[in-house]
Write a structure and sequence with these properties.
Blueprint (H helix, E strand, L loop, with lengths): L2 E6 L17 E2 L2 E2 H10 L4 E8 L4 H11 L4 E6 L4 H10 L7 E6 L10 H8 L6 E7 L6 E2 L5 E3 L7 E10 H7 L4 H6 L3 H7 L4 E5 L10 H11 L4
Parallel strand pairs: 1-4, 1-6, 4-5, 7-11
Antiparallel strand pairs: 2-3, 6-10, 7-10, 8-9
Helix pairs in contact: 5-7
């Protein structure tokens, strides 16, 4: 198995109120993206990393790669107008040897790398096309209409919060991304595209530590998890 990792690092962090890429913002003395890349750079099972980031940030991303010595990063590609478009660009930049692809959010710098083996192990089954890390929902979920009226309370025992990385057989992921543009634009994660293409996806227990940095509060929490700066 040759595992390549795509880091989806687009977006300007509107809810973070930064006015610039949140992946390049400082977290515990290093850019967020540096923390994220370090997870996979140090993992023996990862052979290649491709980063997709907004076109205006490619140069700064390359500076981070060089500064911190991320030797496994084979390419930094310009993102597209959507997450799906950015991942598709990165997928096209992968080397020919990769037969398995993990897609990870650049804004998830706290994924415990030791969990990756469990996901890869699940993908070994012949009937499994993809693996998604996630955690069971612990809060009560309400379904509401446009006016805010509660319409249903789903059984939370069957609900999980999907995280990344999400790992797929390369051919399966390429087939998923060959779907029409309107299908790609409507998807909220890679697993959804694989599901729509007829693939079989399995959920694997992730970690509550694996938060996505979306708001200023998330940055405070991440700083606390990472601990004091050296």
């Amino acid at each position: 198995m040759h595992l390549a990792v795509i880091i989806a690092a687009g977006g300007t962090g509107t809810r973070m109120r930064l006015g610039r890429s949140k992946q390049l913002a400082e977290l515990a003395g290093r850019p967020v993206l540096a923390h994220t890349l370090a997870i996979f750079e140090s993992h023996a099972g990862v052979s290649e990393i491709v980063v997709a980031i907004d076109s205006g940030d490619t140069g700064r991303c390359e500076e981070v790669v060089e500064r911190f010595g991320f030797a496994k990063v084979s390419a930094v590609v310009a993102g597209a107008g959507s997450r799906a478009g950015s991942v598709k660009n990165a997928l096209a930049a992968l080397g020919p040897a990769a037969d398995t692809v993990a897609v990870h959010d650049g804004a998830r710098p706290l994924f415990p790398g030791e969990l990756l083996a469990a996901g890869l192990g699940e993908l070994g089954g012949e009937s499994i096309d993809g693996v998604v890390f996630g955690v069971p929902v612990i809060d009560t979920i309400k379904e509401v209409d446009a006016a805010g009226a509660v319409r249903a309370t789903p059984d939370r025992s069957r609900l999980w919060l999907a995280q990344t990385p999400q790992i797929f057989r390369r051919q399966v992921l390429e087939r998923a991304y060959a779907q029409p543009p309107e299908v790609l634009a409507g998807a909220t994660d890679d697993a959804q595209l694989v599901e729509l293409a007829g693939g079989h996806v399995r959920m694997v227990l992730g970690s509550h530590r694996n938060i996505k940095l979306t708001t200023p509060t998330d940055m405070i929490v991440a700083e606390a998890i990472l601990g004091p700066r050296p």
